[in-house]
Amino acid sequence: MSSKEHKIFILYSLFLLFFIFLTTKSLTLYEIIHLAGQMDAISYTEISSSAPDLPKNNDIIIKHVAQRFLIPYLAGSISNFLNIDNFLIFKFFTQIFILVFWFLVFFYIKNQKFNIRESIIFFSLLFLNPYIIRNHIFNPVQAHDLLFFSITLILSYLIINNKSKWLIFFGSVGIFLRQTAVALFIGSFLILLKKKKFIECFFLSILFLFFLIFISLIADIISPHNFSFKYAYGIIFYDFSQIEKLIRFVALPIVSFFPLGIFILSKIKKNIDKDKFLILTFMCLMMIAQPILAGPDGSLRNIVRISTLCYPIIVSLLFYRYDISKIINNNLIFITYIVGLFVWSLHPTFSIFDFFGFLRF
């Protein structure tokens, strides 16, 4: 991008952020839990409320949330030290993590040498997805997921650009934020194995195993519950006579992914590394499979939010695989698509507009 185009892009990104903040619902913690039904917030706030101590055998805290203690514990520690309400610290963390993600997207765009239109599309796909920025402004207690999105974008950059040196760290540290990070570990391991970096594979495995054991031990202290099978393979026990419910369940992620259909009409790039493409695709499939395997009774409507965790990887992967310049050089297509993305971001639960409420199913 030229200097002028760079300034235009910065102004566009700031306008986009202003639009998201302006049109997202602002709820109290009580409303988030009891009106919006974000029940995991109870467990996260229980962890933060106990800081600087850890909760011990707290019946309220769900086991899988107990393993994600890091960010809630830090929020609670800061809240305790400064004598500020926990919820305000979660909001602060959310805004900081949005800035981190914003910086990383800028870094990615600059290093991939996207032109102005590619940059706007890449930025818009990530920031206007209602389950990334808007969802976390709406529910700041889930701030750790924003950090997870940043890690997935970093990993995409490292893999695509052959920066394997940092895969040991970023391929393992995500487990503090989500169990979904198992897919990041496997993908990083496969990339290092492909490059015959056996020592790095060993250290990645050791570090990941150490982190996994550590969070499991802490979770055993925090929560007396066992990890529920329904979050891992609940679909095995699903009543398949309710086929209509299952179809609706599996179709829900379309809400998050359908704008990516533009790449179907794009030109496939030549001379890409097929192994990178396959490994990144495999990572995404593992992350999408997780909520599907939990089944309708395990993931519920959370299938959309959980499957979206791989979204930065998919967007990076599609830009790596396809050349969309010919399509977006058409002014009518480009402007219509961008406007459509803004409308797409207006999720009826998270935004102040409810005209998409009829699409709930």
Element string (H = helix, E = strand): HHHHHHHHHHHHHHHEHHHEHH
* Helix content class: 55-70%
Measured between the Cα atoms of the first and last residue, the distance is 43 Å
Please give the domain count: 1
Q: What is the strand arrangement across the widest sheet?
A: 1-2
In total, how many beta strands? Answer: 2
How does this model look, in words?
With 361 residues, the chain is mostly helical. It has one domain. Helices cover 66% and strands 1% of the residues. The chain has a two-stranded antiparallel sheet with strand order 1-2. Helix 11 runs antiparallel to helix 12. The longest helix is centred in the N-terminal third of the chain and has 27 residues.
Structural descriptors:
single chain; two-stranded antiparallel ribbon; 361 residues; 66% helix; globular; 2 strands; 20 helices
